[in-house]
Design goal:
Blueprint lengths: L13 E2 H8 L3 H10 L6 E3 L3 E4 L1 H16 L4 H12 L3 H15 L2 H9 L11 H17 L1
Antiparallel strand pairs: 1-3, 2-3
Length: 143
């Protein structure tokens, strides 16, 4: 399907009609998805009117993408959302290593290069050592 969706305005709450337009689905589909996906819990006010917050609009767009563009079933999309919310230990450790590598402050790298370490007779691969330390740190923070 791959249709371009409009940008989400900077508002605190959205009505079901607004969300339907922003996400390219009908209001009755949104009400159905509320039953199928526990992550969707819009606030209800007078007359049982639904008010969605920004994060719920993003979640609906993700659900729409999984169902319409990627071809997931409702059950498959539900499982995929749970995987994204609760990654396995291995996935979390790998993601943590990647984020640590990309977010290391340059001053730490500069100070590490300034250290004068005497030659010990073998070559040290500092990137491999750093990666392994980050993997250990990620595993320790998960436990």
């Amino acid at each position: 399907m791959g249709t371009t969706l409009p940008s989400i305005p900077a508002k605190r709450y959205f009505t079901i009609g607004e969300v339907a337009e922003l996400c390219g689905v009908k209001p009755h589909v949104l009400r159905y998805w509320e039953q199928e996906f526990t992550q969707l819990r819009p606030m209800k006010r007078r007359g049982n009117r639904r008010y969605y917050q920004h994060h719920e609009v993003l979640m609906i767009r993700r659900i729409r993408d999984l169902l319409y563009d990627q071809g997931f079933t409702i059950s498959g999309a539900r499982n995929r959302l749970q995987e994204l919310a609760h990654p396995t230990r291995e996935e979390a450790a790998g993601a943590a290593v990647e984020s640590f590598d990309s977010e290391l402050p340059s001053m730490l790298l500069d100070s590490a290069q300034d250290l004068s370490i005497p030659s010990v007779g073998f070559a040290l691969d500092s990137n491999a050592v750093r990666k392994e330390l980050f993997e250990i740190r990620a595993l320790l923070s998960l436990g």
